[in-house]
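Hello again,

I reread your note about wanting to compare the complex against the isolated chains. To keep things tidy I'm splitting this into two emails, and this first one only covers the full assembly. Below are the input lines as submitted, including protein chains and any nucleic acid or small-molecule components. They are followed by the predicted structure of everything together. The single-chain runs will come separately.
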Amino acid sequence: MRRDPLAYLTAELTTLKEQGLYRKLRILEDEQKPKTTFDHRSVVNLSSNNYLGLTTHPRLRERALEATRKYGVGTGSVRTIAGTMDIHMELERRLAEFKQTEAVVVFQSGFAANAGTVSAVLGKDDVVVSDELNHASIIDGCRLSRAAIKVFPHKDVDAARRILQSLPAGQRKLLITDGVFSMEGDLGPLPALCDLAEEFGCIMMVDDAHASGVFGKNGRGTIDHFGVHGRVDIQVGTLSKAIGVLGGYVAGTRSLIEFLYHRARPFLFSTSHPPGVAAACIAAIDVLMEEPHIIERLWENTRFFQAGLTSLGFDTGVSEGPITPVIVGDGALAMKLSDDLFQSGVFAQGIAFPTVAAGKARVRTIVTATHTRDELQFALDAFAKVGKELGILR
Ligand SMILES: Cc1ncc(COP(=O)(O)O)c(C=O)c1O
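Full-complex prediction:
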């Protein structure tokens, strides 16, 4: 009989099960909403990145349907051959206007935008100076570029400076940070990093995946929030989170974007977005511009929920926005907290090593603009009950 050459994978899964870290995919049986059904259970959903509720917004739904009727369901090609429709160009124009940059290129995902951009703009003689908590897609882009990777401790601008001081003046350098860190919910120190980038002649890049639609005027992101327009050379955003659809984009100068059209491998070698996706994203920008009260509502809900968690006595870390971790330390305890919350009608994902550092396991919560106060209070009551049962709260 043939020996299974992948048997070692089964062994690794067994180890995960023994450690209490094995995760079953939760199945969503309804729309992505604040109260919805996963695995046959009705739950308050604190696990989606659907910050503004746009996944089900009628304007997006309608525009996606219209575009699907007009153009069909797919594009049949990569952007650089036959897969660029006028609707893709319109989306890029609208995003550039929104981000106040010369131009934008849209990728199939935020992951592809980060990985494809870093690997295109850098080569083996270059160096990346990167926050230790930057997203996996940045890390993969750095590895693909073959540039040297120098990591500084989270938000430690002095440490980043020491790294830059130690590098040859003539070497090409990319200084890169997340705008909002996806596991902590805190903000990158953009003004201080922009100062450093200018002092040392670095390319400055910010991944604003969790900030677009959330921070800044009309949700323009952390560049707008910190008032550093014109000081960040490469801005990455995603269309998959607050925008409610799918995709990623890079905003910057016209020459950066044209270079990426020619050299970013996910752009060159992977089929473009279905027209319905592009159309829904354009409608989302309309919503951000015309219905900013949705963003205000997100912030009101964030303040209410965070205040509730901290007054119960949970460790919510250093969050500065709608992502609020409930840090419990031990990985198995985080998974148990998540599972027991689920049984009590609240879905908040447990996150452990290697997604976060060992000893920093947590349940991650994300409130949205569309949660009602009753739903958030229900979730707080469940956290209080399960937190006491598990001995996390006294
Ligand atoms: C900080 C950050 N950057 C990039 C991405 C990737 O975005 P997308 O889901 O559009 O691929 C994510 C999503 O998990 C993220 O959290």
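For quick reference: DSSP finds 14 helices and 13 strands in the chain.

B.
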